[in-house]
Design a protein that fits this description.
The chain is built from 17 helices and 2 strands. It is mainly α. The protein has one domain (8-27, 132-458).
Amino acid sequence: MALRANHPLSTWLLGLAGCVVASASALPYAGSWNDGSRLAAVESIADRHTMAIEDSIFCRVPPEALARGCPPYHPNDLNSLTYGTRDKLLINGHFYSDKPAVISFLMAGFYQMLRWVGLPAAAERPDFFCWALTLASAGAAYVITLLSLHRLGQLIGLPQATHFLWIASFALCTFALAYTRHVNNHILLLAVLAVMCVQFIHLRNETENGAASWLRLAALGTLAGLAFNLDLGSGPLLVVCAFGLVLYRCRRPSMLGLFLLSVAPWVIAGLGLNYAIGGVWKPMNMVPEYSEWPGSPFTSENLTGFARKTPFGMSVYALSLLCGKHGFIVHNLPLLLLLPAMIVVLRRPSRDRPELIFALGWCCWTWLTYSVLSNNSAGACCSIRWFVPFLAPAYYVLGLYLRDYPQFRPDLMVLSAWGALLAAIMWWNGPFIVHMVPLLWPTVGSALVCWLIYRIRSRRPTPFFPAQEESPRPSVAA
């Protein structure tokens, strides 16, 4: 008997599969300056009770770590093994991580609990330390995102076969898989956004049936506050967008006040720690003076947070963030179906339109912000790491599109087949790859050719102008 998408066992099996993938993906060393900086902050907070990271093994690698055969970085990463992480800021004579501090404290709390049950100190066994924190952060975020999308598919009424194809497409055919390999904020923000999408659908159902749950408003505020501390560029924008949707759905001042009260402690903690360390309210890595230390790879010319481009240059750069050699869409081949899906889904009246405007509006705002204020395509990473959270809204749109137009399910299958190949290559190289993903353009070209051949041979309406073969399925009530 086939397992149905709304059967409780399907949720357990999906969660178990996600845990297996996350456990197999987590690596026992830092993959770059990025996660090395975060891990240095976590180790310093828990083991030395300071935010200064200059004594961390990820900032100054001890020779005995190499001798024991468990170095904090990959054995072939001689640059990091020699100099440690360079994602750091020199403030008042001490080095600090340039990552938002609140998340480091949360991870340090988890690490401290592991120490209480017998995990060796990071300086003794950096391999255990890296693997455990990667699994507890990036791995857990991957599983949470899978389960949230599973619930989202149930809520929007995806047919069973489409539901499992859609979930598998996200899980195995996008760059989300690569971001399970090392500690990073970006897959954490993806999980937060996926959960928020589900909670906003529940909020819509509650407001249509009476009054919103106080607990749900508090949860949404907490999630928005957490997002604020995961990315100081896009996080504040998400808080604003989420408040706008709460305002639209809940007009009562008490409900709006509850949402803001739930956000406030996270915002205060994030800004307070930022000011306590760097003496500024803005992100500390936007202060050029803090990056002026011997050997620093950052200057006022490549720091994110400054507008430097002409309008034409900014337009070219913005398009490259989506479709260039590091572009978001070309590294997630199932999303080639997203453009027609967005046009079709958004132009049709729908109960989901306010939630889609919230999610896609935040994506567009974030894309434009980084288009204006950056010039390094997110640095050494697999595609644009800032855009990893965009996968949740993207699959929300694809889910609605495939629900109403199931005749385009084979299109997703064709694109996902090539996406699985590309995802495997990205997984093998990890999220912080320093060069273009191998075989990127041949894989993208092959996917487009195969999709075109299928479109021609199918003799069906194009994805931009679908002929609906069945009436749309209404969203399932909470």
